[in-house]
Amino acid sequence: MPLVRTAELVGPGRGVAAFNVITLEHAEAIVAAAERTGRPVICQISQNAVRFHGGRLGPIAAGTAAVAEGSTARVALHLDHVTDDDLLRQAADHGFGSVMYDGSEHDYGENVARTVAAVAWAHERGLWVEAELGEVGGKDGAHAPGVRTDPGEAAAFAAATGVDALAVAVGSSHAMTERTAVLDHDLIARLRDAVPVPLVLHGSSGVGDDELRRAVRHGMLKINIGTALNIAFTGAVRASLDGQVDPRRYLAPARDAMRDQAAHLLEVVSSRPSESIGHPAC
């Protein structure tokens, strides 16, 4: 099936999971999980993943797109946490339907100015743009733990920049290895009511199933997940590695473990329209 646009998947009354792709096995596992569950999914490739692949976006993007297009699942391709303008400008040439432009390391005014420029460039090419306001804990030191997004500031930021979705800080943190985060659901609801674009939850690997379900019901529509798949991958490799020299012997169970974890999380966050409240995608 051809790639779909992110804007087709993020809409009122439904949550969609966005999983980070690092290797081809990640892409295969994520797409297999979408096929198994019958749920749509977003495969997202971060700037850090591109750096891991020698700074070249093309190969991992092409591989991920090929896996998606060879499946029966509805899959969108998203370029995540971009701070490099040169990388941003490669998105349209590699099949991406959306980008997350991350200006959160800058002060509010500079974040607005940079995001406005990114949105103008992307919208001219039909790309859906996510941005970030309020710092999410645990990412490269730029996101202070305990920060929460102010609804009024979030609404002003969305209006000033013209973004299509907004990542907000409500209690989750990147790279958590235990699912102990407690989200501020009252804040999520207030943000939902204040901000006229879909809300995005980063750092969702550290959030338990019930908390994720509640977050979607209260208005989180795009749920970003990365570390949870890596934990499944690494655990399966450890269990399978002893005495092996053929990487297929340990990569296959690692891929299966990621598929199973992704399938479970797709079921958790892909709520039915009657169960959730949200805003339409732009």
Could you explain how this protein is built, in words?
Strands 1-2-3-4-5-6-7-8 form an 8-stranded parallel barrel, surrounded by 7 helices. It has 11 helices and 8 strands. Strand 1 (16-20), helix 2 and strand 2 form a beta-alpha-beta unit. The protein has 282 residues and is an alpha/beta fold. Mean pLDDT is 88; it is low at 137-144 and 273-282. It has helices at 6-9, 24-37, 47-52, 57-69, 85-88, 108-124, 151-161, 185-194, 209-218, 227-240, 248-269; strands at residues 16-20, 41-46, 75-82, 98-101, 128-132, 165-167, 199-201, 220-225.
- Helicity range: 40-55%
Find the structural class using helix and strand composition: alpha/beta
Total number of helical segments? 11
Q: H/E order of the elements?
A: HEHEHHEHEHEHEHEHEHH
Mean pLDDT: 88
Largest sheet: 8 strands, parallel, barrel
Stretches with pLDDT under 50, minimum 5 residues: 137-144, 273-282
Given the C-alpha coordinates, what overall shape results?
globular
Task: Determine the N-to-C terminus distance.
Answer: 23 Å
Number of strands: 8
Using only C-alpha atoms, the radius of gyration works out to: 18 Å
> Strand arrangement, largest sheet?
1-2-3-4-5-6-7-8
As a percent range, the share of strand residues is 5-15%
Summarize the structure.
With 282 residues, the chain is an alpha/beta fold.
Record the SSE blueprint.
Layout: H1 6-9, E1 16-20, H2 24-37, E2 41-46, H3 47-52, H4 57-69, E3 75-82, H5 85-88, E4 98-101, H6 108-124, E5 128-132, H7 151-161, E6 165-167, H8 185-194, E7 199-201, H9 209-218, E8 220-225, H10 227-240, H11 248-269
Parallel strand pairs: 1-2, 1-8, 2-3, 3-4, 4-5, 5-6, 6-7, 7-8
